[in-house]
Amino acid sequence: MTKILVTGANGQLGNELNKLSPGYANWQFTFTDVDVLDITDLASLQRFCDKNKFDFIINCAAYTAVDKAETEIGLAIKINRDAVKNLVLAAADCNAILIHVSTDYVFDGKACMPYLEDHPIAPQSIYGKTKAEGEAEALKYGRSIIIRTAWLYSTFGNNFVKTMLRLGSERNELKVIYDQIGSPTYAEDLAVAILSIISQTENGEVKSGVYHFSNEGVASWYDFAWEIINYVHLNCIVKPIETKDYPLPAKRPSYSVFNKTKIKSTFSIEIPYWKTSLYKCLNELINSK
Ligand SMILES: NC(=O)c1ccc[n+]([C@@H]2O[C@H](COP(=O)([O-])OP(=O)(O)OC[C@H]3O[C@@H](n4cnc5c(N)ncnc54)[C@H](OP(=O)(O)O)[C@@H]3O)[C@@H](O)[C@H]2O)c1
């Protein structure tokens, strides 16, 4: 039986994997978060992996507070870089394949064509820098698959979709940035892709390296907000503003669109259009009320 460890399981992506896991009866999942398994603690991590002999480790754990990272630098480094080094050591001990998740923030956002995996990285924030360093640690291990994603949302946790739903029901008008472009990504779709990669890797070659994954299509945060507010018929006007009019501590890439040909062709993955997945997530949120 294939044994899979999921770290950071209380987050958006970890919860989506947990939700899908009953559909994979031949696999044994172990879902952990910092309370059970702190990935910054090398000794406990190695003990845990040694005892359970995992075939795959999916690292969903991360320091994701992008603005707070600008001042909590040490903690961001510990979780996003040093803990990935720990995961590599623990994975190597039991010969596990490491699936590590990274971010569009490793790029400077100055491109004008969708980013390929080998485009030079140039992180502009502490979060981006620590995630880039984490990627470098993961890449030192020959059995790691790194998936960069962007603009993640889910029915779980806090994210842009939930913030827009809340603010849109409290206010008559919302001002949202229109000069940052990316691809909203439903964490459920990323979880499906990760599980598909595992099923294609468990008895075959490890196609290690970096891959890009987001939903298909392109939007600004303004477009994303507009679609959310209008789909649920909230009585709120969405107005476009510029990044300079909404200053935040961490610099965001203004262009975060990925070229996803590599993941689609290597693993025969079909990726849904962003609005299709957004409506699916919104329907789930509406029906769960
Ligand atoms: N969210 C996005 O928009 C986005 C965009 C691009 C890439 N990504 C990447 O995608 C991945 C998944 O993101 P997500 O949105 O699912 O993240 P998330 O919701 O913030 O979940 C991360 C989880 O990791 C846990 N964690 C933190 N430190 C830990 C430690 N030392 N040991 C074990 N667990 C720990 C967190 O617990 P606490 O909450 O208690 O800290 C949280 O439950 C991350 O690698 C992230 O960098 C996210």
Mean pLDDT: 97
What's the helix count? 9
Order of helices and strands: EHEHEHEHEEHEEEHEEHEHH
**Which strand order does the major sheet show?**
2-1-3-4-5-10
Q: Outline, from the CA principal axes?
A: globular
Uncertain runs with pLDDT below 50, 5 residues or more? none
List ligands, each type once: NADP nicotinamide-adenine-dinucleotide phosphate
Tell me roughly what share of residues is in helical segments.
25-40%
How widely separated are the two ends? 37 Å
In percent, how much strand structure appears in the residues? 15-25%
Write down the Rg: 19 Å
Number of strands: 12
Major sheet size, sense and barrel closure:
6 strands, parallel
Q: What class would the helix/strand composition place it in? A: alpha/beta
Describe the structure.
The mean pLDDT is 97. 39% of the residues lie in helices and 17% in strands. The chain has helices spanning 12-20, 42-52, 73-94, 126-139, 160-170, 187-201, 221-231, 261-267, 274-287, and strands spanning 2-7, 27-31, 56-59, 97-103, 144-149, 152-153, 173-177, 181-182, 185-186, 209-212, 219-220, 237-241. The chain contains 9 helices and 12 strands. It has 289 residues and is an alpha/beta fold. NADP nicotinamide-adenine-dinucleotide phosphate (NAP) binds at residues 7-8, 10-13, 33-34, 38-40, 60-62, 64, 79, 83, 101, 103, 131, 149-152, 157. Residues 7-8, 10-13, 33-34, 38-40, 60-62, 64, 79, 83, 101, 103, 131, 149-152, 157 line the site of NADP nicotinamide-adenine-dinucleotide phosphate.
